[in-house]
Design a protein that fits this description.
The structure holds three protein chains of three kinds.
Chain A: E1 11-14, E2 19-25, E3 28-34, H1 39-60, H2 68-73, E4 79-81, H3 84-99, H4 126-133, E5 142-144, E6 147-149, H5 159-177, E7 182-186, E8 189-192, E9 202-205, H6 211-215, E10 220-232, E11 237-240, E12 243-246, E13 249-250, E14 255-256, E15 263-268, H7 271-283, H8 288-294, E16 299-302
Antiparallel strand pairs in A: 1-2, 2-3, 3-7, 4-6, 5-6, 7-8, 8-10, 9-10, 10-15, 11-12, 13-14, 15-16
Helix pairs in contact in A: 1-5, 5-7, 7-8
Chain B: H1 22-35
Chain C: H1 8-20, E1 29-32, E2 36-47, E3 53-65, E4 69-81, E5 84-85, E6 95-98, E7 105-108, E8 115-116, E9 121-134, E10 138-149, E11 152-165, E12 170-183, E13 189-190, E14 205-206, E15 209-225, E16 228-241, E17 249-253, E18 276-278, E19 284-298, E20 301-312, E21 317-329, E22 333-344, E23 353-355, E24 372-385, E25 391-404, E26 423-435
Parallel strand pairs in C: 17-23
Antiparallel strand pairs in C: 2-3, 2-26, 3-4, 4-9, 5-8, 6-7, 9-10, 10-11, 11-12, 12-15, 13-14, 15-16, 16-19, 17-18, 19-20, 20-21, 21-22, 22-24, 24-25, 25-26
The chains are: A alpha+beta, B mainly alpha, C mainly beta.
Chain lengths: 303, 52, 436
């Protein structure tokens, strides 16, 4: 989430039979598709959405000096008392850690130091990976709501949950703010506030991963209610000796998950659920499709 | 005998389907039905025309 | 992943509820946008020596609905021109025949294979099929087929059922098709073995005739390995009703010389120069076939090999071996050489001519397509994906039939003069697959 503070501007323009509000947040282009011809309404809703997105970004980005995440990461072992919203996210991270048997771990950000997924073939030294693993592991954390303590040298990163959480928070806010349907889309993670009235559904595209995908009708989805989220590695990977290393790292080994699909798109009731299911599926590696099908979850996987 | 669900990547490819091009298969079935005494095999027997 | 059987998504839903402080207001409704997949092909088929030429446009459109249900619609329009052997043998004098319509006659030069070029026919064929899953492991489909030409109508229904076993590695399927076809030959249906009459004389022609066909297929598809898939099908087919070709004849010959008996048309009329008899086939035919196919992936290349054995109660046996190798070129195109070998043995009532004065056989036909012949097809297909993500391909194939006439069938002067009418044909196809 977040990078250098991008210019915080909001723009409303005409879309296909709708108005589109645009702004940047959490390192993604964000758009709010609004089923209304009234510019004033569209501008008001876009400002509300942007305000909530920036609030979440400022509060939980690991790049913002002084916010709760930064204070935790600089705590050097000290216990930090957190507010209700942060506590809710930490509880959620804890549930996900158990649910994924340790594969989803918000303390695994440190591994970023040794892996550079630039499409090249430089794999890290296994000993360097082992060294970093000593500073990774939710099981090493002390979490007694509302007090949180990290071991010295460990870090947390809410990037894996943050964007989807923001989409859902913005969706709830917009649902209360207007009666028209809006589609909240933060770089491919999206949700609908309520079913549209003037069309059957909102049309969204899955970014095609290959030329064959472009021809198949799977590239365009329509959504009337609920949310979609995509996990993918079409750009971030390493390729050495014919083996493709996806950027999804297994925090238990420090190495990429084997056999992950190139992209997983999931449909669920909320963006948080969709995002977590697609991440859990990627972490399943070869078993991704079987896992999602077994859960009865609508999904589109590309290999 | 067989493979696990996650080993179906190659089998899912279009070029690995038993009939990759149904139109071409129907065209060939019709040509050979008209010129030979046999028909079908893969599915239903072709035919349905006055050419044999 | 989860060692306990409690659903991940249920736990996740509860956790999300706690996180967001509220439950979602409506269950998700999302699906792939429905669209049509079109598969179109333009075909040219042309035989040498002024024989049959066919130009056709073939279109198939498939639309997917929720949950793997699909509708497929097909349309084929083809026009046929050119000449086809009428079943009479060559003579070293010119021969005159009455056209099927009975309204004019045509003459074939000496020593040439008699060909009837009456046929300039346009055919329209329609198909419609609906397929859908029944539960998790079963699939079903129902379909309709219709074909319409000026002298022939076909109407058919088909249905199939399949079930997956063994983690979808094995699929067993069964299919049934029934059809009612109707002949309305130009000039009427000739009475079997009746003579070809003068122009204007339709005394031996009757009305329309029908044919009923029942086809059944039982098949097993099995995944052998990550790279290999095989299929085995048994098919049964029974046709009953009018199975004769109303336009085909046999020459009536002298028992010693083997030459066709000559004839003089009525005064002032045009008509056949020799004695010809309309053919007659049994009113029932049962076929059994065994078909097997394998698709084998070899690091990017795909081998498609199939073999079919067919046998029927007309004593025709055939073997077909078909091999294709799809060879990818780069990421967007491929080359596919193809070769097919076919051989068949003649029908038990297949003969070259009828002997004047001898007892008529129960059934007889000189149609070369019921004869003893081998055929080879060799071709090459080149396909590519366009920038828009659609697929185009072109293929060119040569089809060659070479046959032999069983020795015992040739009489007198026919030996050395009468040969199986070998066939050389070219097949050209351009195809385009796209979505809308």
């Amino acid at each position: 989430m977040g990078g250098r503070q991008a210019a915080r501007q909001v723009l409303v323009e005409a879309g296909q039979d709708c108005l589109v509000g645009r702004f940047d947040a959490m390192a993604s282009p964000c758009e709010i598709l609004i089923e209304s011809g009234d510019r004033e309404t569209a501008e008001r809703l876009t400002r509300i959405a942007a305000a909530e997105a920036w609030r979440i970004e400022d509060k939980f980005s690991r790049y913002r000096a002084g916010n709760v995440v930064d204070r935790i990461n600089a705590s050097d072992g000290e216990a930090i008392e957190v507010d209700d919203e942060t506590a809710a996210l930490l509880d959620f991270a804890d549930t996900l850690y158990s649910l994924s048997n340790g594969r989803f771990d918000i303390t695994s950000g440190a591994l970023r130091g040794v892996w550079t997924f630039d499409g090249g073939d430089r794999l890290p030294d296994p000993q360097a990976v082992q060294a970093i693993l000593r500073r990774v592991g939710w099981d090493k954390v002390s979490w007694q709501r509302p007090v949180f303590a990290l071991q010295p040298g460990m870090q947390i990163d809410l990037g894996g949950i943050g964007k989807e959480y923001a989409v859902d928070r913005v969706t709830v806010t917009l649902r209360e703010a207007a009666t028209c349907s809006a589609l909240v889309n933060f770089g491919g993670d999206l949700a609908v506030t309520r079913a549209p009235r003037e069309r059957r559904a909102w049309r969204v595209g899955i970014e095609p991963v290959s030329a064959a995908d472009k021809r198949r009708n799977e590239a365009v989805l329509e959504i009337a209610t609920g949310a979609l989220a995509t996990s993918g590695d079409s750009r971030r990977f390493l390729l050495k000796d014919g083996v493709r290393y996806s950027h999804i790292l297994d925090p238990r080994s420090g190495w990429p998950v084997e056999g992950a699909p190139r992209s997983v798109t999931v449909a669920a009731d909320t963006c948080t659920q969709a995002g977590m299911l697609s991440t859990l599926a990627m972490l399943e590696g070869y078993n991704a499709e079987a896992f999602l099908d077994g859960e009865g979850v609508k999904n589109w996987c590309r290999r | 005998m067989g493979v696990e669900p996650w080993e179906r990547d190659i089998l899912a490819k279009e070029e690995m389907q038993l009939t990759t091009d149904p139109v071409e298969a129907a065209i060939d079935d019709h040509i050979y039905f008209s010129k030979e005494a046999s028909s079908g095999g893969r599915g239903f027997g072709g035919g349905g025309c006055g050419c044999n | 992943m989860t060692d306990n059987k409690k659903s991940v998504s249920a736990t996740l839903a509860a956790a999300t509820c706690s996180l967001l402080g509220s439950a979602p207001t409506a269950p998700v409704q999302a699906q792939e946008e429905p669209s049509w997949d079109f598969n179109t092909a333009l075909l040219y088929y042309g035989e040498d020596n002024d024989r049959v030429q066919d130009l056709s446009l073939n279109m198939l459109g498939k639309r997917y609905f929720l949950d793997d249900r699909a509708l497929t619609l097909g349309l084929t329009v083809d026009t046929l021109t050119g000449a086809t052997p009428n079943g009479a043998i060559r003579q070293d004098v010119p021969q005159t025949f009455t056209r099927p319509s009975g309204s004019s006659a045509y003459t074939i030069p000496a020593n040439e294979l008699p060909l009837d070029d009456t046929f300039k026919d346009t055919r329209v064929a329609l198909t419609a099929a609906w397929e859908q899953p029944l539960g998790r492991l079963w699939k079903t489909s129902v379909g309709f087929s219709g074909s319409f030409e000026y002298d022939y109508t076909h109407l058919g229904l088909n249905g199939s059922l399949s079930r997956d076993f063994n983690q979808r590695n094995t699929t067993v399927s069964a299919g049934l098709a029934i059809a009612r076809d109707e002949w309305d030959p130009v000039g009427g249906t000739p009475i079997p073995f009746s003579p070809m009459l003068d122009v204007g004389d339709i005394g031996n022609k009757t009305g329309t005739e029908t044919k009923d066909v029942v086809d059944a297929v039982l098949g097993v598809t099995q995944v052998i390995s990550r790279n290999l898939l095989v299929q085995l099908n048994y098919s049964f087919s029974n046709s009953s009703g009018y199975l004769t070709d109303p336009y085909k004849i046999l020459s009536l010959v002298d028992g010693a010389t083997g030459d066709t008996i000559t004839r003089v048309p009525a005064p002032g009329a045009e008509g056949p120069s020799h004695e010809f008899r309309f053919e007659s086939r049994p009113d029932d035919r049962t076929k059994h076939s065994l078909y097997t196919q394998a698709k084998y992936y070899m690091g990017g290349k795909v081998l498609d090999a199939s073999y079919r054995y067919m046998t029927d109660d007309w004593e025709i046996d055939s073997h077909t071996l078909d091999l294709r190798l799809r060879w990818p070129i780069g990421e967007r195109s491929f080359l596919e050489p193809h070769v097919r070998f076919y051989t068949q043995s003649e029908a038990d009532f297949y003969t070259i001519s009828l002997v004047d004065g001898a007892t008529l056989p129960t059934f007889a036909s000189a149609d070369y397509r019921l004869g003893n012949f081998d055929a080879i097809t060799a071709g090459l297909k080149y396909g590519w994906t366009t920038r828009g993500g659609n697929e185009m391909s072109v293929r060119a194939e040569l089809y060659r039939q070479t046959g032999s006439i069983p020795g015992g069938l040739l009489i007198g002067n026919q030996v050395g003069r009468e040969t199986y009418p070998d066939l050389d044909a070219i097949i050209l196809q351009f195809s385009y697959r796209f979505s809308r």
